[in-house]
Write a structure and sequence with these properties.
The protein has five helices and three strands. A hairpin with a 4-residue loop joins strand 2 and strand 3. Helix 2 packs antiparallel against helix 4 and helix 4 packs antiparallel against helix 5. It is elongated, with a radius of gyration of 26 Å. The two termini are about 35 Å apart.
């Protein structure tokens, strides 16, 4: 390229080449600072949800981990199954807001920069933390009774062809639940 603003122009004017490289480096450093600020702000995010009856309150961080769990005195009369259900439902409600809050941070810190990266990140968060079903959801079916183990204490292997419980895939080593 030897036309206007092409490589030929840069070779003919080394000072212009240095200026452009300095501009590029400054732009890159500014972008890195914006991303660092977005990451720091995201790491400070906390989302809290409270059950409809106020018995359970769950706070999660931007990576979905529970950072606080509180109960009102109402839970003293709850059957354990109901308490478990309320904790999980409330946790999922808190987590469902993560993508929107991270989107807000990204818009504030990065503007319209890197739309493809932002879209991929937010799609990942929405997939990991979808909107929970509304309260009309049916309570989970009670678990199947577990047969007692034999007298020797060793577990009996399941019969061939018997349905196996679903296995959770092991997390990949490179995943650290960091939304960045």
């Amino acid at each position: 390229m030897t036309g206007p603003n092409g490589l030929g122009d840069l070779v003919r004017d080394p000072d212009e080449t240095i200026r452009r490289m300095d501009d590029w480096a400054a732009g890159f450093a500014a972008k890195a600072q914006r991303y660092q600020a977005a990451q720091e702000q995201t790491e400070r995010l906390r989302l809290t949800a409270t059950s409809a009856d106020g018995a359970v309150s769950v706070t999660v961080g931007a990576d979905g981990t529970v950072t606080d769990l509180t109960f009102s005195n109402k839970v003293k009369s709850f059957p354990l199954e109901e308490l478990s259900r309320q904790i999980l439902t409330t946790m999922r409600r808190a987590q469902s807001g993560i993508a929107d809050r991270v989107a807000g941070v990204m818009a504030e810190q990065l503007g319209d920069e890197d739309r493809e990266t932002r879209s991929a990140l937010l799609d990942n968060l929405r997939g990991r933390f979808p909107d929970p079903d509304e309260p009309d959801e049916q309570p989970p079916a009670p678990p199947e009774p577990v047969p007692p183990s034999p007298a020797g204490g060793a577990a009996t292997p399941p019969a061939p062809g018997a349905p196996q419980p679903p296995r959770r895939p092991a997390p990949a080593d490179d995943e650290d639940n960091n939304p960045w």
